[in-house]
Amino acid sequence: MGGFAGFVVLRLRAHRLLVAAAAVSILVTTCVLATLAGFASGVADAGARRVLATTDAAATPLLLTRHAGYADRAGSDRDARRLAATALPGLPLEIRSLALSDGLALPGGTTANPDVTSLATLDRGKLELLQGSWPTDAVPGGPVPIAVPEAAVSRLLLGLPAGTRSVTGGRLTLTDQISKAPLPVLISGVYRAANPADPYWQLDALGGQGFQRAAGGGHGGAGYGPMLTTDAAFAGGAVTQSQLSWQAVPGTDRLRAADLGALAAADRAATARINQQGTYQAVSNLPPVLDQLRQSILVARSTLLVVVLQLVLLTAMTLLLAARLLTEEREAENALLQARGAAPQRIVRLAATEALLLALPAAVLAPLLAQPLIRLLGAFGPLSSAGVRLDGPLPAAGWWTALVTALGCAAVVVVPALARARRARESRRPTRGARAALPSVLRGGADFALVALAVAAYVQLRHYAGAPQGPTGSLGVDPVLVAAPALALAAGTVLTLRLLPVVARIGERLATRGRSLPGALAAWQLSRRAHRSAGPVLALALAAAIGTLSIGLNVSWGRSQRDQAAFDTGGDIRVAALHVPAFGQGGLLAALPGVAAAVPVNRQQLSLAGGRIGELLALDTRAEAGRLPLRADLADRSAERLLGPLADPPAPAAQRGVPLPGRPTTLDVDVRLSVSGLGPGQTLTPQQVGVTVEVTDRFGVTAGLDTRSVPPDDATHHLVFDLRAAAGTGTPAYPLTVTRIDLARPVALAPRAADRQPHPQLTAAFTLAGDGVTATAPAGLGWSNRTQDSAAKDHDSTYQPGGPVTAQPSGPAALTARMKLGTFFDQTAGGSFGQAAPDVESSFTPAGPASLPPLAAVADQRFLDSNHARVGSVLTLNEAGGGLVVRITGVVRQLPGTGAAAEQGLNGQTLNTGAGFGATDPNDDGGAVLVDLPSYVQRLDRPDTAIANASAPPVEWWLAATPNGRARADAALAADGDVAVFYDRAAVAASAAHDPIGSGPQSALLAGMVLAVVLAAVGFAANASGTVRARAGEFAVLRALGMSRRRMARATAAELTLPIVLGVGVGLLLGEAITRLVVPLLVLTPQATTPVPGVLVEIPVLPVAGLLTAVAAVPLLCAVLAGFRGGDPSRRPRTPEES
């Protein structure tokens, strides 16, 4: 090989170690950046598909509904499929359909408000047959065979002959709610949904549960079904088809992240257009899911770019170090070439050719190595746990990145040669010899400019932390968020260059005071050529800082997921929705295996000044004090001390009501009503008195039992209330207490004003018992009364309100009340008022304190700021029931259990991020306040409060699991059909940690940390080799003067070790500082919002110590071995440039 190419190869061979270091650096850099580019694209596509495959089943289908008869079925089906293809373009669709009949009234109920059902053509593959057989086609003129849901069996037995034990084979006559035509049916079997969570059951208004309680929980009007029938029943006209429903489930196997925005827009537009046309009704929850997915991908890409820029910074530093050493080695050679007539341009051309030859292997090999590396990243670590598989070919972004990176690395290698060529032209002489203590870039103050830029980026990032936005303000990758960590690293490491000369001079002075020749020699070399150590110091500092930042970001991100899960769930398990009345929830949940305690939670929305919206969180603070997930840094005291003052002192037994003995299933009430003092011609209206009894369980949850009508005939009437019915399919939480008795009082009618007489008096006595065992009123029990008299305000002076009411226990009667009844004068005996009928109700509750102090509350800082309040302030809150007076006793930075994420799942709405108690717009968020639920309830129904007649039933429950009992509790909740939505804290945290999108950056962080160690080792090895070659002449002279090889090795090791110690130490300090500053701003939720609670930065000692050991290991080994190379006097006369 001759000519120009041969000369280039000879130049490369003359400096094999430095050339190899540069080639390895270029190859590693190109491979890593190509891998990360392909990884970012691949993980976004694969993660998006994984998220849609594992997301809430109700999130992805498109639902279409149309009212149409059987004759229109075929045409409607074609139109529905066409509309679905328009709404979800480019995706394979699975279409499911359901035909539904008119509403049909069930027999055996009330005629005014009957229970209803409907017949449907359900997919039998989604059902499980429990009894009997599947329905067959109806015989002409015979009943229609049907299969009924398991939840409807007990109700259907009411319509069958008495004594019937099984509905299978039973015959019923249903009534069409529209045509009123009878429909005879034959029950052939009983079924249940094989999987109620299957998205197929969105087609069913009852969601596969088979039953829906009537609105308000009253009798009648409940829904059952649907009843399964064959399609022939609709085709033959035996059953009238009323409605058709379709469900379009998109396949996402070919979906790409780039298509998410267009798909969401198409779905929104098509859904709006379909609903506007009116023939079909369309519902789709997919666009919000896709929007959130796009935000998650942008957050992940931002974090990935943070890693990429840090690695670019380190690789550029490593390449510049190798290129500078190579250029320095060739100074004399280039000077000789110039002396022989070579122009500076030719020398630059030689350097450029060498750089391209070094980059060529990287350009060829990097794309080939990138895909196996991507598979490796996906096969281990967070991505593997998230179930993401990256098995496809290398995306185009990976190929382009490899080519551009290889060319960029070649350009970086040429930069030192260009700089020296320019200086050579200016000076026309070699530049070997003494150098300035500081590089020119530092002498010009560029390092301070870089620091100023980093500070400005940090301030900007801190001020606008939150959703990632592009340069135009739209949703996109925020360049400030991406660049700020890299700028901070660059600024911090460059500043260390100013320390290096100072440290070298101090070391030289210390060494000259001693008698160690190796130490003095090393110190002298460092102080004379401090610039040679700048590159290794920067490389090692960057590697240590990047590794520390990666560890801190990874660990803090994981900690944040656990903290968010704790804040959002409140307890070990959060039950957000149940198909059970509130009165039956506490006993049901507390009895589950693995549950140690159940805490009821109530929420209210608060209207604050300036249009802001706050949230009131009420829970049993005595039960929750030791379990509230309040992080220590969020308050100035522990949760126990913070919640201790919130609860009122326990009320004495006499103020709590009448306890029912044992665990009764029925409440027996003996009522005796009598009227005295009724004057001549006076009558009562209405003729009977309405009696309502309220029972409270041990959690403070109340149940108003059915109102019963009792005549005031001075006879004892025995009323039996079914407590199990009040609990629905749940269980009352014993012990139970009677806490309220309401009387709907009659009024007296007097025909003439001249006949005015004293008011008649009503006497009411109530004896209470549970399962026949008489309940004894506690000693000292008193009853307070509040009477609401609509007649007093709705009628004129012809009405005279009743007199005072007295109420107290008397003998076996827990309550004996006497009251004067109101009287209408100038009225006919028939009671023709001409206005609204009178409504007079007296409520009797256990007498408590005459007045109560303001309710103690703990507020978050945002709430105090919104109300211009502080600890000790007394505020009146405008909540749903009226005004509530609270006194702030404590403050926290952020309050657990509040915010949109903590409301998810309430009322079964699993797709919503909130349920409307707090603000959905962060700009309207007025903060939250926490109060004790029993103390709050005590203030709701009092005559002296502005929020009388309000109630606070639990909207959710926080469960505490026994040790090792969480899995059993989860299994019991999942198997209980009455539990609609629940969240396990550990499962929520694990799900967030294994998020298919968020796991990508975590894998990249770990890979970046490994690469930082490798690049630091390569860079330092190149520097050590260059140092040994540069010292070869000096070592030969020292050897010739009699200095031993061991002492020279010690001197070289000392010279190379100081930059290692300085670089690793500075990198550790810089990495910790930057981690604590920027990690709280880099960690975002999948919704691209700041996490709640804020990120608590963790930098674990052991992993960081392992990292620093790995960073320093190879450099220390090089430092030890470097001194044993060179120093042979016989090799001194012939150096490469002299050959």
From TrEMBL:
Residues 306-423, 1009-1123 form the ABC3 transporter permease C-terminal domain. One of its GO terms (cellular component) is plasma membrane. Residues 643-663, 779-810 are annotated as: Disordered. One of its GO terms (molecular function) is transmembrane transporter activity. It is a multi-pass membrane protein. It comes from the Bacteria. It is found in: Cell membrane. The chain crosses the membrane at residues 304-326, 347-370, 397-419, 440-460, 480-500, 537-557, 1004-1022, 1056-1079, 1099-1124. It holds the Pfam family FtsX. Keywords: Cell membrane, Membrane, Transmembrane, Transmembrane helix. Belongs to the ABC-4 integral membrane protein family. This is ABC transporter permease.
